[in-house]
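During the no-cost extension, the postdoctoral fellow (Dr. R.K.) reprocessed legacy sequence entries with the updated structure-token encoder. One reprocessed record is reproduced below for audit purposes.
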Amino acid sequence: MVGSVKRRRPAPLVVPSFAKLNLGLEVLGVRQDGYHELRTIFQTFDLRDDVAIRPRPSGVTVTCDDPDVPTDGSNLAVRAAVELQRFVGLARGLEIRITKRIPVGGGLGGGSSNAASVLMALDRAWRLRLGTAGLYPLARRIGADVPFFLFGGTALGLARGDEVYPLRHQVLAHVVVAHLGRPVSTAAVFRRLDERLTPRENSTTIFRFVSRDLEGRALPILSNDLEQAALEEAPDLAEQVGRIRVVLVREGALLATLSGSGSSYFGVFDDPKRARRARAALAAAGFRAFRGQTLSQDRYRRAWARSLGVVTRTRGADQGRSGQHGDHGRQGHPGGRREAEGVRIHRV
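Re-encoded structure tokens follow.
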């Protein structure tokens, strides 16, 4: 009897999907299109999801090990795949599997990062050779934070946050992030802010930060215009944020603020020992806390290069083909490097 030969499923392509922080965020006013005019300093750090993609006969599906992540067309990773299919005129089926470590609804950009990861991975898998420039317009249509994840590192975000300019000076520091366990509605936070918002075209804090030497002394000038409105929208979180901030400042954080519209609160440190103490103190107080390091644009690119099997020896702000992105490494210690003391500035 001749048995049928069962075809082996192709191995998935697994790529990293890193979290972000907003080191500073200014809301300047409401635009004519109804969105808000923003200035923000984006920063990737080494907390990451894993996104696995595998071909299937038809359709786009997504699964995730976190039940809070939607698995329908509202998932940004699915939207990214569909947008790319339409753009290049391909109807290839796709299976997406997300291993979630970035807290959902914490202001850390997990969904946007997942979407950008799908775009960059499919650019490679489908041999499209669109690169950052070709994927950028698609990313902007999917969500305001998605374009940043095509670049990573330290970057200036303008307009809705979707005009992204990687900075020559890249912040290398230690971060401690406390997640408060529940999302805060971004739309509700902006509505509350709008009640007292006046146009601030001449606000200069973000631009002062960009123009200055970014050593640790520059970080304290940054702040998040959404923090007060977010805590007013979720007053039950205000007491917890107060306790978190006390710990971070006591342990020497150079900057302690909310990321995006929350609810994750973070501190930036120039000393890994202080960061470890802060994380331990927050955990002892019952908070879910993460400790990690920022990722420069160069390390972000090399992470992507390694995940795609691409060897790259170039350094700098290459906006070329997909695969020229960052440093992978084990979570929390990219590349297995020793922790260095001090907030260092890496120039690209």
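Residues 313-340 have pLDDT under 50 and may be disordered. The two ends are 64 Å apart (CA to CA). The remaining legacy entries will be reprocessed before the final report is submitted.
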